[in-house]
Amino acid sequence: MNPQSGENPPLRRRAVIGTALGGAAAAALPGTAHAGPQPLSAARAAEAAPSTTSAKRPWKLRDTMTSDRAWADFLRGQDLLWSRLPTRWYEGPFLGDGLLGSMVYQEPGANRIRFTVQHGRVQDHRPEFGSGWGTCRLPVGHLTLEPVGTITAVDWRLSLWNAELTGTVTTSAGTLTLAALIHDEVLAVRVTADGGERVVWTFHPEEAVSPRRVQEAPPAGYTPNPPWTAKTAADGVEQVLQPLTGGQTATAYRRTGAELLLSVGHSAPSTTAAETDSLRNLRRAKSYDALRRRHVGWWHALYPKSFVSFPDQRLQSFHWIQLYKVASASRAGGPVMATTGPWLEPTPWPAVWWNLNVQLEYWLIHGFNHPELDSLASTLRQNQEQLIANVPAAYRSDSSGVGRSSDMFATRDVGRPGTGAETGDLTWALHNVWLSYRHSMDEGLLRDTVYPVLRRAINYYLHFLTPGSDGRLHLPSTLSPEYPVVPPQDTNYDLALIRWGCQTLLESAELLGVDDESAPRWRDVLARLTPYPVDADGFMIGADTPYAQSHRHYSHLLMVYPLYLVNWDQPENRELITRSVEHWHALTGAHRGYSYTGAASLYAMTGDGDTAVSYLRKFFDPATRYPCQANTHYTEAGPVIETPLSASQSLHDMFCQSWGGVVRVFPAVPSAWADLTLHDFRTQGAFLVSAVRTAGRTRFVRIRSLAGAPLKVKHGLSGRLTVLLDDGSPARTHDLGDGVLSIDLPRSREVLIHSGSRPDLVIAPVAVGEPGAAWGLP
What is the C-alpha separation between 304 and 323, in angstroms, rounded? Predict the structure, then answer.
């Protein structure tokens, strides 16, 4: 294949694969974030299936977390609490169902309580004004609860188990008792009044203009969207209709006694369908109690899919709050998360950012065993035609891409290498989708999304690789995300993504049985691509561009984390990794929260749990310039949610890793955490890992295979091992050295690994060793 050609050679196939684009791909996905049960893939079916062994199995885990009562008690210890009225978005409770979102805090400058009303699908539809203004998320409005008396105190609890806010508001006139939740795109609030108090609600529509105006003026030629209108339906439902250029947003709400129900609909290109949708959602809800029954059923099924407990109370609570957060912000088939999630506020970041933010937002869903929350993979699958349209016209026959920021449909042109443009962001996002495949082993995801989209993303790079006088292939100038210098040639960010992409395409073709005519080209690139630029301080930004000033991103270290192309299993690279990470953090000033969570994950890869947790704690240190906030949200010139979510992945990296084809159990647990329990932690290869550590020693490891993939496990046990299948027979094993064991584990079977006499096989919370205050404003 001529790398300068716009031609896309046909695939020679040993097996037929689907590469449907656009509508065909979208048709295979649920249309909303609340779709009903879908057909299970082989791996998901194996997860749901009972064990193949009889009830008289010789060993079995005793899971103490099998009842609603056990879960309610455990999660109650992780709840957020408020004894003071929150005054900002990063202090208050937050509710969501993957689409509709609400933050709760004091109305600025008023004796009222604000419930924000925002929706992940509500955006503008004018791409000519860019993602910051023309296709940004748009505000909807907010409710205010307006007491008679002056607010003197609150006593609130955000229950993770029920995903419900409950509590009281005490005023100089009496008490308001409230409960609130969001389900099926309906915000439901029930408030009762005692003493001299009464319940007064007002809905305040907000102007449909970019939240970015908090930072800058609109672009030339930008005109405001038309004003909203209001009307009342025959059954007393009130509606606010917001016309848009090429769409509509509609908010419907109904007050009945102590209850208020509110729903938001959005349509595009239809300028009328949102009105119907909002009414349908509202009328389907019927009442607070009816909606709550469905709501708690969904959440009570969510949490027991996995379990983790460790002795640091504040970090443990934080960790479970992040699962609540991502489940409130994302559902497969729904919109990809914007940087604020569904909790839009005035911000410079009212869109989807593809050069770090979106990647960090989704990593934690894998270990937590929640592929049903993966709206990133479904977004890329549904919008393949748009990804093609994003590249310059001359390359659309075989290439795809996405620019730095976009709307929920990935609408954003990508620049050309050679112009200093940021070009690798789609490839990095596809690494997340590859991880989704590896954690599920769902061949459909590999066939219909990873392979066809990654093929086109790498093709875009291949058009611009040229041989130098050294015989190596070089890339002209591209931007290492947000490093503030003239973009260099051969940026490490792009070289790492090109290497990962070519390796992954070759592996994927082998797995799918595809004889791809581009395979020789991918092999040639891997053989001749210029080495990563390195100097005395470690990995550089790019050729002739050292890492010489503080940088919040770790884009120049992508080959180390999260791609693991250069890793700790390669002794020859350990000094280079250490030197690079130390130099990255030695230059201070620009570091942000994810600079610390990234360093924590990098040190976890090295097995240094104490250093890893020391960097992670910097994110929670109030003395840090950009620390985690009271409700576990985060701000950088405006609301963003990716960093707290990535902090949970840093914890996962301490507990269990599965890169390089090896499952590593307790690879970097801090020495202070002598006790730790994992249960059904999902790893690459579609394995569910359960393991218990007590008094600083691993007691047992149980692994269940959902897909029958090859299993290599670094178990962390010492002494003579016992390795038993779930029927009591010895498993076939092979010692690979360095504590790694290869185990023959068929699909839907389990293996138990322990040393010495059989320990108690109990899954239970560990005792708190480091007490900490609840999150919120307790």
Answer: 12
